[in-house]
User: Fold this.
Amino acid sequence: MHSIPAARTVAGLPGRVVFGALVAIAILAFVYSVARRIRVLLAGAPENRFDRIPLRIRKTIEYAFAQKRMFRDLYAGVFHILIFGGFVVLVVRSLSLVVEGLVPGFVLLPGAAGNAYTLVKDVFEVLVLVGVAMAVFRRAFARPARLDLTLDAWFILFLIALLMATDLLADGARSVLNPSAFDLRWSPAVAAVSRAFRGTSPAALQAVYEACWWIHLADLLFFANYLPYSKHFHILASVPNIFLMKLEPMGRLGTPDLENSERFGVSTVEDLSWKSMLDGYTCTECGRCRVVCPTALTGKPLDPRVFIATLRDAVYDATPEILAAQSGRGGDGPAAPRKDLIGGWVTEDTIWACTTCGYCTSACPVFIIPAVDKIIEMRRHLVLEKAEFPKEMQTAFRGMETNGNPWGIAASSRADWAKDLPVMTMAEAEGSPVDVLFWVGCAGSYEDRAKKVSRALVDLLTSAGVRFAILGTEETCNGDSARRMGNEYLFQILAQQNVETMNGYGIKKIVTNCPHCFNVIKNEYPPFGGRYEVLHGTELVSSLIAEGRIRLENRIDESITFHDPCYLGRYNDVYDAPRQILEAIPGLRLQELARTKQKGLCCGAGGGRMWMEEKIGARINQTRMQEIAEAKTDSVGVSCPFCMVMIGNAREELGVETKPFDVLELARRSSGQGLSVER
Amino acid sequence: MNSLVAIAYVPDTESKIKVGPDGSSIDESDVKWIVSPYDEYGLEEALKIRESKGAGTVTVVSVGPERVKTGLRECLARGADDAVWVDTGETKNLDALGVSKALAAVAKAATFDFFWFGQKGVGPDESLVGPMTAELLGLPHVANVVHLDVGEGKVTASREIEGAHEIVECSLPAILTAQKGLNEPRYASLKGIMGAKKKPIAEKKLADLDVPEADPAAAKARWRKLSLPAPRQAVKLIPADDPAAAAKELVRLLREEAKVI
Assistant:
């Protein structure tokens, strides 16, 4: 009978005592490290992420255990789930080995259950090695651009492989030394190692066994203690981070109570919510968030993968001070001044660069929000507390304040676009019921091209017999740009005003051509008491086509591609409606862009960037236009007035042939029912 | 150093102006009101002087109906310390001299180093109130200031004149009118907006000040009739196939239609 190495004497001391001491130190150190990390979270700003528990459990199963988002990159998804599966299975094995080392004669599971677990464990140890090999191949040879090839990553792969290898070698050696203790039918991998060891001297086998046993357990104890100080804290933080995900619509930012606050937005580590900090802990720097990031792709200082890691580093840097403050200790005299979060860790250029396109948010497999919501919080600080922002933004703010539109055109001219059209205002329609309110939006009311799209929708709805009305001069900017430029105060004023107006008319259903209006009214007005069924113009028109109320009969013999607006696609999952319209037009041939739908590249106008100058790096609209030009289609369909401006400008700047059309302009042209649009 | 800043609350420059039914006033129904943009430069400069000296107060003053209080609140939100509202009550279209007399009355009760005005209000656009107030107070005044250096008891101002800049030295207290280019007016922080709600606005009645012009019959200037400029004509393109004919046509149009040559 070969007892386990811990039963022997180590350096003159009883093995179990030495091992027990190691385990105790490792556990204490681990608890200490993790407790520090958790105590810092407690210092963060509050955020309720413990509501709707059954839904959270469902999401956790779907995204943490089934890893749904990981398989968007199939290769990485496969090796990751092999390693993850191994981790789940082998945690039991590892703990049982520890207990075995401490308690003589401990057996995890007797009989059939034990055999079954042994088999599963055996298979997974091999699968984990396969997974690690795939990961090594990727890092060494495939080298996807999104990865930063850090030493940390190599080290953790080594530790994982070492865990597997030492366990297999230890059992293999032991099974030769003591065949009666092993039923190798249940351990095919160990059996293979065992066969390889045949003929090795018992002394050598004993040495292999003992060395591997100690290395395995030392690796395990070290591994646990390494995690909290590495990007691989991911291993511990991911499942909780997914459970604690934002359940509100992606397009809804937090609504702070401005009347009863002293501080606005985020300017210090302590202003970050605990969940924002946990996001930092969770990031393992896979870089998926940067793949279609418009700022990272065009050489701007915002790279979401770097941004979230920077926030994490800032949290780690502030940890000693936060903990000292928490325990009431002042530390040793005045603490050294900390690097400012804004201006120090994160530059203002980084904060203003974001287009809030949401690609990073939608790409993260573990539901970190790498940038958008956090950047808006920082913008809130800059605008509301410091009134420091790129000066051209002031024109847009003032326009929205005084005239209810960022262009600052007279509020009284808002309905001028419809002067010669048979369009009623809600005030005029009083008494006669309407099916739907057409929310025109600032662009649709004032911007020349977008006005044509407004007129196209009017034609289509009129020809389909839809009874609709507009708010006319009672409509004011929805506030999207104000909110995403950090001017939460202005946003809330506009939101309250619009909700009051619409609730006053008892509005139930709204259609709008602007994805920004669409997102805000649909997702951000409910907290202000505005609950409506909101449709994008393409949704309503495509359903009218499907019902046969709009007939698309005129041929448009052209090829076309489609540029997805961020706030329609990624934010609200409307990918099909505009495509259904394009496909319903006789003769029109739709060809998808290389980067499309969830991976569609932003035009550069979101997040209030429409109103800011773009001074750093390549221009986002030109970058996108080049991708569009590569499709070599006659035209490009858009469904957002801001995309239209950006794409239209890029077309002129680059001298590209591809003509941009709003999907509704094409629908109106094909329906031939025009009342109002100049041919 | 203390500053007074006169604030005109005027129709937004983008508002579509309509003539009222009496033919001599504007129809205010669709008008959005703003702090006159040139006055904003004056306020900004006053705030900057206070900040650079680390002491002093900035007081904003406006003469007008109840609505001008909204403009004064905006100025308080941007950082002015206090505000004075001269309530014009029933008086409409107070003329420039009347406004100047009201402002001079407020100024006489205050100690100040600077009294700032915009180089013009963008309401009636007369460019009169600053210089008139200076005369009434017997103070030096510099108009159209685009740059200012503050010294001990005096200032050196760069003022815009046609085609050139004139550098003027002036003793304090003085009246200055601000021109575009002097600075970039700041935006109010939310803290400023919240704080402004708590700052008091001192109220004076025009009737209590010595302003005879408050009675329209005594006013030196009256609004008799307002009319809108003719709508802008569409651009005429002259085909340039034959340069000589095009030039001839251009001259004909300038002479016969535009009547400018």
Observations:
- Chain B has a mean pLDDT of 93.
- The CA atoms of residues 2 and 27 of chain B lie 38 Å apart.
- The interface with chain A takes residues 12, 14-16, 30, 32, 34, 184, 186-193 of chain B (CB under 8 Å).
